[in-house]
Each structure stands twice: as structure tokens, then as C-alpha cells.
Amino acid sequence: MNPLRRLIHGLASLGDLLLPPTCAVCGALLDHHAAAVCTGCLGGFESLPAPGCPRCGQPYPGSGLCLDCRENQDRLEKVRSIYAFGGTLQEAVLRLKVSGQTRLAAVFADRIAAAQLPDLNLRDQDLLVPVPLHKSRQAHRGFNQSQLIARRLSRLLNIPMAPYHLKRVRPTPSQFQMKSKQERRENLKGAFSVTGRNPFGGKQICLVDDVVTTGSTLGACADALLESGARRVVAVTVARTVHW
To answer: Which domains does the chain have, with CATH numbers?
Structure first.
């Protein structure tokens, strides 16, 4: 973290101690310091509708895999998410990533740990691996939000976290700027690699991220992990974009 951002975060932490606690999303006063999000904002976190695709978790009324997963060629086994991306949950994710409200990472991790994920037991995983940012983007932001979520989740579930061996080796344009799935996949070719001496060999890996849109980033990460010797790769995210 650069010195200016370190100073800002330090002042924010001091302010949390000296000033009345406020909601990290809307700024409303809270009853106690332990909370980070008010009940009103939490009530706006919308759970994903059921049923969902057994692979990607996208709400899907049909049987079997959704149309996207039938066409998708990556080797990510499954993705499970807690919320639909929108409303106050979307605002909370932006507050974490853009405004540096890092206490929201603990809120998100707590929600993931407490959730009953369909056909996925996180405690069965050998390692949690946060989706990495390119070093230039992480230096600009001052932190990796997925790593903050994964670190808290690791402590809650007593599962080791491996945050440094999966690397984003080249910067890529934002996926949000790309409309087609093919554009997103091409954008991520060769973007991730694994360093170290067989750090994932034979392991069951759970990727951790904040939001999944098409799954292209998670799929590219899974391919890199499997090529390095991982046995199985699944993923969990705070939210997913719902394609109606």
C-alpha cells in the first residue's frame, strides 16, 4: 500500500474509534461499533433466486446446465454465490473497492461462511485462493478486495489461504467494458500463471472473488490452477450478475 493510502486508512481507523460508528454503505449511525452495515442496507442484499444452474449458479428454470455452461469450455467445476448483484449489495461492493471501506470484506466473508451453498461444502476444500489483481492495479487501489474476503473466510472456516502463487501476469482492460463472452475470454488469455514449486499439486481449490459476471475470470484462473496440477477447482463469490 502506498504511503498516502496507508495514512488515509490509518486516519479512517482512528476515526472509527473516536466518532460514532456509521454504516459503511449509507453512512447512517449505527448502534454499536461491532456492526459495519445497518439493518436497512442488509435488508437490501437480495438472495439469488432458485433454482439455479448446477454449474454456475445462475438462476435458471430449466433442467440441467444453463445455455452459457453448455457452450463454456473452461474447466471450472462450479460457482456458488450468495447474492444477486444490484441494489445496496452493489453499492456495498463499490464502497469496498472504490471508497476503501475494507471493513465490508469481513461482512461479506461472514455471510459466505454462514450460507448453505447448494452442493458445495467449503470445509471440504484444501485451499482458498483469492482471484489476484495485477500488481499495478493493486498498487493503485492499495489492497485486493478478494484477498481481504478470503483471509477472513480462511480464519472462520480454518482453511489455509494461498494468496501469492496465482498471479495476474499482465494487465487487462476491465471486463465490464466488454459485452460478449468471446471478448472476455480473449481478453484473459495468458493473463494468469502459477509460480512456485507445485504449490497446488493434487489440491482441491476454492477460488474467492467479490462478483462473478460471465465467469470468464474465474474460468481463466481455474485453467491456470489445473494446468499447474490442482485436482479440482470450484469458486465462491459474494454476488453474481443475474442474466434474465
So the answer is: 48-240 (3.40.50)
